[in-house]
Amino acid sequence: MQSAKDVDMKTVNELLELFMRQAQLERAMKQPGGARVVEERELHAVREKIAAVPESMKRDRLASR
Q1: Residue-number span of the structural domain to which 23 is assigned
Q2: Following CA atoms 26, 20, 50, 46 in sequence, which dihedral angle do they give, to the nearest 10 degrees?
Q3: Were both Cys, which of 8, 16, 35, 52 would link to 28 (CB 3.0–4.6 Å)?
Q4: For the chain, which residues score pLDDT lower than 70?
């Protein structure tokens, strides 16, 4: 059984991965030739996942790292 701390760390790690992937995709879109349609769709999906996490949770979890 997972403890609350384990779940919190998993959430923090997932958020960090999403933020890093979002930044990576945004950089790719700014490069000459831009990003492919697949990357643009992935960027939208990543943004939706981030938006689904409550702001207070994002602030609390990331501030605690």
Answers
A1: 4-63
A2: 50
A3: 35
A4: 1-7, 35, 58-65
